[in-house]
Amino acid sequence: MIPELDGTREIVAFQECPSLLFYRNVEFEEYPKHWHTSIEIIMPIENNYPVICNGTTYNLNIGDILIVAPGVIHSMPATKGTRYVFLVNFSNSISSKAFDSILSLIQPAIIISPEYFPSIYQRCYNCVVNSADEYFGTEPFKEVSIYSEIMTLFVLIGRSYTTQNEMFSDTPPAKQQEYMNKFMSLCEYINKNCTEKLTVDDAAQMIGFSKFHFSRLFKKFTGNTFYSYVNERRISHATLLLLDPENSITDVAINSGFNSISSFIRIFKINKGCTPTEFRKIHHSGSEITNDSEP
């Protein structure tokens, strides 16, 4: 079971390594909808394993590697078998544009498998297995070694995204890398300016595409529509504002880029599985909250 769950947020209890938690999961039980600020890596080693992220079911075969981005609501039905589950929190140790760009590529989740990533799959598989061996081993400096393996994993994914032809298969080869660079820069811009007014027209113009062409390519690149991607970033920002009881729900909505309270509450519930008020009560249980109301 999940050791500590506040509403839908899992409070990850890191043990011997401050930002790393690795376990060999064999439980036949359901894991309800939850989210956390850590990256989660799941790899079945006996039997297949379904994982539901933001309403989409990812059916993992043995050896498939699922990476769930921070803040993504996910759940797992009761399934017999064994799988590696690895939680890692880079927020206090890594801050770089390149790493943020890679994280934007995996939203909300990504499967690394021989089918989808044949050129890097074996090396990614080795990174996960090596991390498990280090975590359960007794060698000195194992935390540094695990960080190295996981960073290698993300570098492989990032480079694969920027070089694979499948994503923009209908684009002339000479333009594919140019498109990758443009969309990576755009996603970085959105991540930093998600609370501002952002429209498809402005984004398309920013990187020199027609609205129709941009919308199609953006969905290919991120797996999301433009507005779904923007809203996910806005909700992540809103969760931070909600932790301060002095911020009213109205202020949080406005300062997170939403034009109305009703749309904010609706989108927040879709992304987090609870309303903003419910989220706030979970994190301020026992304290009085006065600036909190929903229509």
Measured between the Cα atoms of the first and last residue, the distance is: 35 Å
The percent of residues in helical segments reads: 40-55%
- Domain count: the total is 3
- Please provide the ordered H/E string of secondary-structure elements: EEEEEEEEEEHEHHHHHHHHH
Cα-based radius of gyration, to the nearest Å? 20 Å
Q: What strand line-up does the widest sheet have?
A: 3-10-5-8-11
**Total beta-strand segments:** 11
Largest sheet: 5 strands, antiparallel
- CATH-level-2 architecture of the largest domain: Sandwich
CATH domain class name of the largest domain: Mainly Beta
Low-confidence segments:
286-291
Average pLDDT score = 83
Structural class: alpha+beta
SSE map:
Layout: E1 5-6, E2 9-10, E3 20-25, E4 31-34, E5 39-46, E6 49-53, E7 56-60, E8 65-68, E9 74-76, E10 82-88, H1 97-105, E11 109-112, H2 121-136, H3 142-163, H4 173-193, H5 200-207, H6 211-222, H7 226-242, H8 249-255, H9 261-272, H10 276-283
Antiparallel strand pairs: 1-2, 3-10, 4-9, 5-8, 5-10, 6-7, 6-9, 8-11
Helix pairs in contact: 1-3, 1-4, 2-3, 5-6
Describe it for me?
With 295 residues, the protein is of the alpha+beta class. The chain folds into three domains: 159 residues, Sandwich (Jelly Rolls), CATH 2.60.120; 51 residues; 56 residues, Homeodomain-like (Arc Repressor Mutant, subunit A, Orthogonal Bundle). Helices cover 45% and strands 17% of the residues. It is built from ten helices and eleven strands. The strands form three sheets. A five-stranded antiparallel sheet has the order 3-10-5-8-11, with helices on one face. A four-stranded antiparallel sheet has the order 4-9-6-7, with no helix packed on it. A two-stranded antiparallel sheet has the order 1-2. β1 and β2 form a beta hairpin. α1 packs across α3 and α1 crosses α4. The longest helix has 22 residues. The chain is globular. About 2% of the residues have low confidence.
